[in-house]
Amino acid sequence: MDDEEEGEEYLFKVVIIGDSAVGKSNLLSRYARNEFNTNSKATIGVEFQTQSMEIDGKEVKAQIWDTAGQERFRAVTSAYYRGAVGALIVYDISRSSTFDSVQRWLQELSTHSDTTVAKMLVGNKHDLEEIRAVSVEEGKSLAESEGLFFIETSALDSTNVRTAFEIVIKEIYNSVSRKIL
Ligand code: GDP
Ligand code: MG
């Protein structure tokens, strides 16, 4: 490997989608800033955060987009999806309606993407075990049938949050590397 290659930089766009109040914004703030908010803020417009991680000694950056409230009106625009190579599709394990919506989100994602997207199905609010409405098996089996990675997370207590993002980013990096090789 020559020096030029080692200095190579990667920047990948990753989107977070899923129904309102499943914890999308908190997953991102937990990952990017280690913050959690109990109040859901209905921010207007789109926000993203850039996060770096090291893979194979290379700096890999992910520009992670948050819908910031557009999903309340089912009005996530095509610009939001444009160029995305990774996606976290989030539901709330305590609300089955949010799990039922996953198919619709997957459809919307595939309608708007013109490339292969590394996808992670995320069952968030793992801490709400007592009022769980979607079993781990249901999550796993949907993920298997749709070809998605699967993980349960808690933005509240941090369980698996970093792992959820990093698996997606590593998968994107690996598929890009496979293309180069
Ligand atoms: P978004 O609309 O999908 O962006 O959801 P938010 O991140 O705004 O979160 C919606 C609500 O769920 C807020 O009141 C959060 O405090 C709460 N929340 C988010 N993640 C978790 C979690 O992992 N566990 C629990 N118990 N609550 C969460
Ligand atoms: Mg939000």
UniProtKB/TrEMBL annotation:
Entry similarity comment:
Belongs to the small GTPase superfamily. Rab family.
Q: What species is given as this protein's source? A: Platanthera zijinensis
* Protein name, entry field: Ras-related protein RABA5c
- Give the record's GO CC terms: endomembrane system
- Tell me, what is one Gene Ontology molecular-function annotation carried by this entry? GTPase activity
Principal localisation: membrane
Keyword list, A-Z: GTP-binding, Lipoprotein, Membrane, Nucleotide-binding, Prenylation
Q: Does the keyword rRNA processing apply?
A: no
Q: Which domain of life is it from?
A: Eukaryota
Q: Does the keyword Lipoprotein apply?
A: yes
Q: How does it sit in the membrane?
A: Lipid-anchor
Instruction: Report the locations given in the UniProt record.
Output: Endomembrane system
Q: Which gene encodes it?
A: RABA5C
